[in-house]
Each structure stands twice: as C-alpha cells, then as structure tokens.
Design goal:
By secondary structure, the chain is mostly helical. The chain has 9 helices and no strands. Helix 2 crosses helix 3, helix 5 packs parallel to helix 7 and helix 8 runs antiparallel to helix 9.
C-alpha cells in the first residue's frame, strides 16, 4: 500500500529558494535625504529670508517670507521651526558657500587666481553679514558661538588657498594667510560708504600685489 506523503516533507528546490528569500532579514533603510523639491523649497526660503531680513530686519514677517518663497507656512516651519533657526540658517548658508567655493576654486583655477576669486567672494560675504547682523544679534543661542564656527571654516579656506599659492611660488614664503583675511575684515569695521564693496574689491588686488614673491 503506497505511503502517504508526510506533511513535513521538505519543500521542492524552487519552494526552498522562495522560503529562503522570505526568511532573509530586510536591510535597514538609510535615512532618506530631502527630496529634490524639498531641497528647492528650503533654498528658496533661505534666499527670500535673506532679502527680507535685509529689508525689514529681524522682525520680518515669516508668513510673508513663506508667501514670497511660494510655500505654505507649514512648509517653512517644518524646515525652520523658529525665527532663530531661520536667521542662523541664512548665516550658515553664506559661510558654507564660502567653504564650498574655496574647494571649487582650488580644483578649477591656478593658485593665485583661486585665491583672488575667493577673496572677492569674501567681500560679498562681509556685505551679507553686515546685512543680517541686526537679526543675528537677536539669536537666543549666543551669537559668539555662531561666529566662532564661521571663523574656523573661513580660516581653513583661506589657509588652504594661500598656502597653495605660496607653494607654487606666486606668493612670498613669509606671508601669513591670516593677515590677508584680517585686512579684508577690517573693511567691515569702518563706516560703510555706498561704494565700499567696490573699494574692498580693489583692495583685494592691492593686497595680492603686495604679497607677490619678488622676482
């Protein structure tokens, strides 16, 4: 009499492979980065906020910023839960642009041209910082810590660019990159005239000319 198949009989090969797939643990999903549209929303908010703080100071309407950035207030608050968070993000974005530009100039330009391009960009950063300084001064987390972090990134950028120009023989070997930076920062400490940015950019060429290696 034929024996009945046992219910515990081993599964066929194809079934076994299917079972193994089902039993495999699923890998943990990596945290999702912001979607492209969310990144674009965030950047638009920052661009509009910078203009709003320039025009209206720290008390610029967040609802107006959201409307001009073509997003809802809820979208703005998801990215920036408080006014302080938005003010700080505007400032940090300007610093991050400087740091990223230093790396890009280093890859794309000869040493002295890279340094000059970055110093010209730094003048624009000073202008932006002056614009949003009143808003930054309202930051509840302590503006000194914010500035300390920015100074470290800026110093690292000009150190790398200036040392590259020194090694290439374009600049004198006894040059201290911090001196170049301090000269530009000094422009921001004097009363501003309507054309101070243009004067500062002319100063960039004067500083570089005075730092050239004697031939």
């Amino acid at each position: 009499m034929p024996r009945k198949a046992s219910q515990s009989a081993a599964p066929k090969p194809s079934n076994r492979r299917t079972a193994q797939k089902l039993q495999k643990p699923r890998p943990e999903l990596a945290p999702r980065s912001l979607r492209t549209d969310a990144q674009q929303n965030r950047q638009r908010i920052l661009d509009v906020a910078k203009q709003a703080f320039t025009r209206d100071g720290a008390n610029a309407s967040l609802d107006d910023i959201a409307r001009q950035a073509a997003v809802g207030p809820g979208t703005l608050y998801r990215h920036f839960p408080t006014r302080d968070a938005l003010i700080v993000a505007v400032f940090r974005t300007e610093v991050e642009k400087l740091a990223a530009a230093a790396r890009e100039f280093e890859r794309a330009l000869p040493p002295l041209e890279a340094l000059r391009a970055w110093m010209l960009l730094f003048v624009d950063y000073i202008a932006a910082k002056q614009i949003i300084a009143p808003a930054l001064n309202t930051f509840g987390g302590g503006v000194s810590k914010l500035y300390d972090g920015a100074r470290a990134q800026i110093r690292a950028a000009i150190d790398a660019l200036a040392k590259r120009a020194i090694q290439s023989g374009d600049l004198r070997r006894d040059l201290n990159p911090a001196d170049l930076l301090q000269a530009l920062i000094g422009v921001a400490l004097v009363p501003s005239s309507p054309d101070w940015q243009q004067s500062a950019k002319r100063l960039v060429d004067i500083l570089i000319a005075g730092s050239r290696r004697a031939k």
